[in-house]
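Supplementary Note 2. Why include the ligand at all?

Several targets in our set were suspected to adopt different conformations when bound, so apo predictions alone were not considered sufficient. For every target with a known small-molecule partner we therefore ran a joint prediction. The input for beta-D-glucopyranose is given below.
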Amino acid sequence: MSSTPWWRSAVIYQVYIRSFADGNGDGIGDITGLRSHLPYLKSLGVDALWINPWYKSPMADGGYDVADYRAIDPLFGTLADAEQLIADAHRHGIRIIPDIVPNHTSDQHVWFQAALASGRGSPERARYIFRPGRGPDGAQPPNNWVSCFGGPAWTRLPDGDWYLHLFAPEQPDLNWQHPDIAAEFESILRFWFNRGVDGFRVDVAHGLAKDPELPDLPHTLTGETDQARLGHVEHPHWDRDDVHAIYRTWRKVADEFDGDLAFVAEAWADTPERLAAYVRPGGLHTAFNFDFLMASWDAKDLRAAIDDSLAMLDGVGAPATWVLSNHDVMRHASRYARRTVKPWVPNVPYLPEGPADLELGTRRARAAALLMFALPGGAYIYQGDELGLPEVEDLPEAVRQDPIWERSGHTNPGRDGCRIPIPWSGPVAPFGFSPADASAAPWLPQPADWNERSVEAQTGDDTSMLELYRTALRIRRDHPALGDGTMTWHDTPAGVLAFHRQPGLTCVVNLSDEPYQLPEHAAILLASGPVENALLAPDQAAWLTR
Ligand code: BGC
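The joint prediction is reproduced in token form.
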């Protein structure tokens, strides 16, 4: 038994609960549905589940607008269901990491309702960020900050006050300088730790500390500049140094409990150094590595993302965590499905160019999975990655639900296309997502040909994405070289990545247009596609034992 904490090498499966499995037939995924598929997750071989917000919410942003952090939304079940899920998952050897949303609440949260009722200048308003407007009659917003979902970050109330929302107007930002906020979130953490959760994914972890002066964004930060390439520029509300004090306290709260609890930060930082600051000793445990997710399908780009991230994290003694897709981004089978993968500019919606070649995208997604699972550290699977689900890019406008679609004036399709309910079995929609006698169709329509991508259709098919994931995760669990540790690059021609993990495993990924000759006598442990005459085809990856 090694004493390495589990989160240094964990494979964590992201459950977007609304789209995972519908137990009660209302067309919306729920805890009962999730519980019934724990054996599937166990057989897939994952160590933990990150569950997107399941709290009571008016669902203006898929549950990221929380009205009560201590209650489960009736759409998903009850607190007793959640407790049962945690117990069942633990019996399966699977840990549970819910999302926590500390940057903002719902506008239906009691605190915001009290703030509205209590009027201008009241102590109730001090828990949020209320300000008078600018201009002679205060009709201009207090500053030029913009909402991540489009439009201004301020909404005016009939009494003249404006309140800040970095996301939708239904998601007012909390004022983390107010002592009630820290105290309340520490209590919420304890509430869930006492119910057995194994950690939290921290939503918008980089957003909590705002410059108290609320200055305008300088014009260099309002344009579509490629900030990641420019280095760090101090920002009035993102990734400010003060934010770390909050997480040092959270870490102390987690350390009060037994069981090796872990936080993972959703922190968007300009540089790997800035990201590493979240996971210094005494801070959060891990952070998503979005540079890897945003890298093009390009050997140089990927290698740079891997090297920079490992170097910075190593400096603070934290493990890397790799991720290819999540509920906010275009699924990678579709991102990689363009011959030239468009460079991704942070803070600007990723809209691909040209039609998707899903055969190409799938080939690359298979290779990317072997790359990701071979890298040192932990890895995330977004539900459906293991089925090779593509982005649904042709959703009818009428069914789109993401607030980004409306708030961007219909210029950004938003994130519904990566949130389509999972196909489990059967020839026709809802493909086992809902029970046979369901009273409603799935909340977003599934493509008619997803029968071919269902869990049932892929199970036992050695060429399927699902079986590739299952095999890769089984090997990863058993092979001493994989998971936490170090890696060494091999010299390879341009376009080919190869690295060694001690003891005895080499991962080779061919991102070039030419077949790559594998070393003589190399034994192939696993390959992302058929390998003939020891030639690794373009867009293929292999794990070698010698
Ligand atoms: C979540 C999004 C959400 C936003 C606001 C994020 O970064 O991942 O899905 O819309 O935070 O809470």
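The chain has 16 helices and 20 strands. The pocket of beta-D-glucopyranose is lined by residues 61, 64, 101, 167, 203-204, 266, 327-328 (CB under 6 Å). Comparable summaries for the other entries are listed in the accompanying table.
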